[in-house]
Amino acid sequence: RLAALITAPQNERFAQVMVNRIWQRLMGRGLVENVSDWEKSAPSHPELLRWLGREFVASGYDVKVTTRLILNSHAYQRATDPLLTETSPLFISPAPRRLSAEQIVDSAFHATGTPFDLEEVSLDVDSVRTTNVAITMGKPRRCWMLASTSNERDRPSLSLPRITAVASVLNAYDWRGARQDPRSIRETEPNMLQPAVYANGAMSTWLTRLSDRHGMTKLALEDQTVEQLIDRVFLRLLTRLPSDEERQMYVALLQDGYDTRVIPESERIQPEATKREPVRYLSWSNHVDGPANALAVQREVEVRRGDPPTNALNDDWRIRMEDFVWAVLNAPESIYTP
Question: What pTM was estimated for this model as a whole?
Answer without folding.
Answer: 0.86
